[in-house]
Amino acid sequence: MPESRKIADLMLRNVSPAEWKDAIEQKNILQKLSASSSKRVAAHIRSRLELMKPDLWQMVRDGDAVLATQAIFIAAIKHCRILGDYLDLVVREQFRKLEDKLTPALWDEFVLSCKQRDPSMEDFPPSTAKKMRSVVHKILVEVGYLQSAHNWTLKKIEIMPEITDYLVRHNEEYVRKCIQVSK
Predict the structure, then answer these.
(1) How far, in Å, CA of 179 to CA of 24, rounded?
(2) Domains of the chain: total
(3) pTM here?
(4) Which of 5, 70, 84, 157 is deepest in the core (most CB within 10 A)?
């Protein structure tokens, strides 16, 4: 979140490319060990946030921890269809069935079903699929849907009204559906 807040601030201030480069590479506002790491992280965060409107960037920069986390989360869902579909198809179904855990098998079945729904999707090597699962579950831990990285017990979360309002105002129906999996 601290890195996303800093990138959102640069975006809200509409800094020039030179100011962006100075902040990321020279001033090292993201506090990375190398300029290349700073550039990579900044580009990744920016690519997520650019899919959303400035009022979301402001929630990221100025919101409390829960609001900022949920704002970053909805940008991640819009940026990564696999995250959104996993929430919508797997996590929602677990809540619906009153199951309290996610399992590695559920992820594996999900990855196979993605390929069945979209034959043009590339085949992921097992190591890539496992890494993707780890990243997706880390995101779910950060937003509060999972107990911890090692304990995949599901938890219900309350979506902040500002997040729901943003999604409705900007016609983000897919993202809204994905975050409301525990209803």
Answers:
(1) 31
(2) 2
(3) 0.89
(4) 70
| Residue 154, SS3 per DSSP | strand
pLDDT at 164: 96
36: containing domain: 1-50
Which whole number is the average pLDDT over 62-80?
95
**Domain annotation covers residue 87:** yes
- Token pair, residue 154, equals 């599901």
Q: Is residue 59 part of a domain?
A: no
- Tokens 């559906």 belong to 177
Which residue, chain included where needed, has tokens 């990221």? Answer: 60
Model confidence over 81-139: pLDDT tens digits?
A: 899 999 999 999 999 999 999 999 999 899 888 877 777 777 777 888 889 899 999 99
Query: What does residue 137 show for φ and ψ, rounded to 5 degrees?
Result: -70, -35
- Unique residue bearing structure tokens 């855990």: 101
Among all chains, which residue has been given the structure tokens 């920016």? 46
User: Same domain for 40 and 79?
Assistant: no
In the prediction, which pLDDT does 125 show? 78
